[in-house]
Design a protein that fits this description.
By secondary structure, the chain is of the alpha+beta class. The protein contains 5 helices and 4 strands.
């Protein structure tokens, strides 16, 4: 009888410890997903900024390309100035589009990344020649602003 009570107490103690471990584990998992007083770090990869930029350029969406520029750049150039600057941009011409990219070097923290990438540009066929893929190296400066990666490019 005493042994039976003792076993019952041990079972309850173990059940209580398991419950406490589950509660602590849940709090730990939730605290990593919901920042409590921490500066939030972006959950997306900065390469998403490059992908967004390539999509906008390939769609000839100059407004989106401008929107993807960091605030610092937009303070220096208005949308109208940006459009004027890009009137003769080869990448915005018909039959030119980016195919893919490969990352050569990538450095990042929560709100800034620097990526050196090789982007492959498709150029149209020229008088009897086939179209070609031209590799172009860029250095991207990416800033996490307003919930997405904003970028500025520097030809490498």
């Amino acid at each position: 009888m005493v042994e039976e009570k003792r076993l019952k107490k041990i079972k309850w103690l173990i059940a209580g410890l398991v419950l406490i471990a589950l509660i602590i584990g849940s709090i730990y998992v939730l605290s990593n997903k919901i920042p409590f007083g921490k500066s939030s770090s972006p959950l997306t990869d900065p390469e998403r900024g490059i992908q967004n930029w390539i999509e906008a350029v390939n769609q000839r969406n100059i407004n989106r390309v401008y929107d993807l520029a960091p605030d610092e750049i937009k303070q220096q150039r208005t949308l109208a100035q940006f459009k004027e600057d890009n009137l003769n941009n080869t990448f915005l011409q018909p039959d030119h589009y980016f195919i893919n990219y490969t990352v050569i070097d990538k450095k990042q923290n929560a709100t800034y990344a620097q990526i050196i990438a090789q982007i492959f540009l498709h150029q149209p066929a020229d008088q009897g020649t086939l179209g070609s893929e031209v590799p172009i190296q860029y250095k991207f400066a990416l800033y996490y602003e307003h919930g997405e990666w904003k970028l500025w490019t520097l030809k490498w």
